[in-house]
Amino acid sequence: MGDFISQFARRRLVILAAALLVVAGCANHPAAPGTEARAPKNIIILFADGAAPVQWDFGKRSSAVLRQQPFATTDVVFRDGSLGLLSTQPYGVYVTDSAAAASAMSTGHKVVNGAVSITPDGKPQKTLMQAAKAAGKRIGLVTTATVYDATPAAFAVNAKSRRDSQVLVDLLYSLEPDVLLGGGAEYFLPAGATGGKRKDGKDIIAAFRAKGHQIARNTGELKAAGGSKVLGLFANEDMNFELDRDPAQEPSTAEMAAAALKAISQNSPNGFVLLVENENTDTAGHANDAPSLMRALWAFDDAVKVALEFQRRNPDTLLIVTGDHETGGFSPTYAQKDLSTLSSGNRFYAGDEQLRMIEGVTMSLGMLKEKLGKKPTSEALDALVAKHFPGFRFDDDLRALLLGGKTLERNFSYVPQNLLGRMIARQTGFYWGNSGHTSQPVAVGAIGPGAELFSGYQDNTDFGKILHLLVGR
Q1: Is residue 223 part of a domain?
Q2: Are 20 and 37 within 8 A, CB to CB?
Q3: Short-list 44, 50, 42, CA closest to 278
């Protein structure tokens, strides 16, 4: 059976390659009336780390109820475009990390967790951005994480470990993306500079400037950038959650997407490949932070709307929306109001009232952890909950665990965030199964030339192979 499946997968790729040859030919000749077959000039990949169908539906529902706005990811891309599913397993185990998942989606090859586009035999595999650059396309990476975090790194360069931050920055500098936006300034600056951590004394921001990149360190500077090459670093580490973000210092995902498209679409006769990632969807999942997840999904969807408008004006653009894995085992459900009785009369269902409770939260769980400090007290905890989590109460069993620095179970490792997430879950029904990644398939939606190739149930390596066929046509 395994041989049959392998043969089937190979046959499918041969068919795809043949189809792309036909598509490429159509790009050079007028299409027949009623046909859409042509190769994409531009590819925009909008990537919500940690997001699977349950997260997308949460974004859709919460946006409709609380913002009275359509959720473009589901209401346009998934509904009107091609829709598929991707399995997410890495090499050797069942549950992936972000580096292995992004590597498979970038190169078309499985790698072990923690590796950056290098297969277990030690061979670096051509990444999507390397392939795009070799094809004469302009390339860009945008993220709310550090620009050398697992996803942008795996789509761009090759390294033995996702933890080698300085090495990854050096590799990105050598690759020289036309647009590079996000956090992570600390490994661009020497240790002597404010916030710098580089051990070799180099100033990589200055080096990028010398290569012709405009430098943006805050939202105003990003909006003012008018050139075709931009390096934007808006935080020393990861950028903040929407609940905590200073809009003057850190641009939104949509603002970064708009700036990236403005820059990368200049001087691009062969088109471009742009990755736009919101990492906060994943970080919120690890923390079991439903309020931050909700706003991260909204911020991501605002960027999808920006990309859809660009695609509308440039129909030779393929727009893809996807994620790499699911994070947190997110599971909105019904639950008992308390443990006094198991009767149905004591049950409540997660609904619009509970969404409004979540909307009332004004601080991320990560920021609350920072405010509590290393030795939290009941008084500080109660004051922060009262101020930033109106309507919520912190149960005594959770309080004892938090003050003791203990966790709920072996699969919850973010303390105290997971305990605070359980507080929210008990009173809203928005529960979490763990604080890590799960094996759930992720959705992939696509609109534009080549979109039909992403439909159906495929492996995440197929995603990478299709992209390489598209950029190398």
Answers
A1: yes
A2: no
A3: 50
CATH number of the domain that 128 lies in? 3.40.720.10
Domain count, the chain: 2
Active-site annotation holds for 82 = no
What would the pLDDT profile of 258-286 be if each residue is shown by its tens digit?
A: 999 999 999 999 999 999 999 999 999 99
Rg of the chain, C-alpha, whole Å: 22
260 and 387 in a single domain? The answer is no
Q: Which domain holds residue 347?
A: 332-432
Calpha distance 432→419 (Å, rounded): 11
Integer Cα distance of 294 and 298 in angstroms: 6
218 inside domain:
yes
Same domain, 63 and 177: yes
- Count Cβ atoms below 10 Å from residue 333 Cβ, excluding itself: 10
- Measure the CA dihedral 273/275/276/277, to 10°: 170
Question: Is residue 448 a part of any domain in this protein?
Answer: yes
Residue with tokens 């030919």: 25
CA distance 96 to 327: 10
Choose the catalytic residue: 98, 106, 117, 165.
98
Whole-model pTM over 0.85: yes
Residue 4 in any domain: the answer is no
pLDDT in tens, 345-363: 999 999 999 999 999 999 9
Q: Give the whole-angstrom CA distance, residue 130 versus residue 95.
A: 27
Neighbouring C-beta atoms of residue 221, cutoff 10 Å: 15
